[in-house]
Amino acid sequence: MTLGEYLNKESLITTEAILKTNNIVFQVITPETHLNSAFGQASSQPFVIQVQENDYEKANKLVNDNDTNTSTTVSIEDYTTEELKDIVLNPDDWHHQFVSQASEELKKQGIEVTKEDIAEKRNIKIEASKKGIEPSKIIFYVMWLLALLGGIIGIVAGYFYWRAKVKGPDGKRYYMYTTKYRNYGYYMFMFGLTSVVIQTYFLYHFDLLYIW
């Protein structure tokens, strides 16, 4: 069972330490998009900690007790109303306790974020996932140059831009990049392969001439 999702590496390490100390078997599922940053896009996918079903209640209580007693709890009062709304509307991007704190603070201000509001925001994120993103232009052009020169990195990059997928908020897998850049990625991949073939041919040809 999923115990929690963590974008904050410090929170992840703390939770791992708690589980290890209490001899609770767990598994950490790392984001599927570690290559993103190498090709111009930082990963927004969280680390996921899973525990066995019979350990869930105990593990959840230990983690929550630690969150309650820790001296490093973030002060909710430092956030504006709009920032608090954004936290509650995007629960997958934040620690579960922090989302609860933000929700309580909004209620004190007479503001309630409903399940319908969260679902609407989630649907917007799903639609954005379907469309894909655009990569860093500078890195993209560098990869094109490497592909044209027959570089393996350029070929791998082309395939990544063309075929890479990420998990959306609904759990489904979508192409990471927009159709425009996926097509560019395909051309990058093919140009890279063609360049390698041509270079290999000429090297082999000149070697034969040298022998004669």
Describe this structure in words.
- The chain is mainly alpha-helical and 212 residues long.
- Among the domains are: 1-73, Alpha-Beta Plaits (2-Layer Sandwich), CATH 3.30.70.790; 137-211, no CATH class.
- It has helices at 9-21, 56-69, 81-89, 96-108, 115-131, 137-148, 152-163, 179-211; strands at residues 2-6, 26-29, 47-51, 165-167, 173-175.
- The strands form two sheets. It has a three-stranded antiparallel beta sheet, covered by helices on one side. It has a two-stranded antiparallel sheet with strand order 4-5.
- The longest helix has 33 residues, at 179-211.
- The radius of gyration is 24 Å and the shape is elongated.
- The model is unreliable at 37-44 and 70-74 (pLDDT under 50).
Number of strands: 5
Order of helices and strands: EHEEHHHHHHEEH
> What is the first-to-last residue Cα distance?
69 Å
The overall pLDDT, averaged over residues, is: 80
Class from secondary-structure proportions: mainly alpha
Per the principal axes of the C-alpha atoms, what is the gross shape?
Answer: elongated
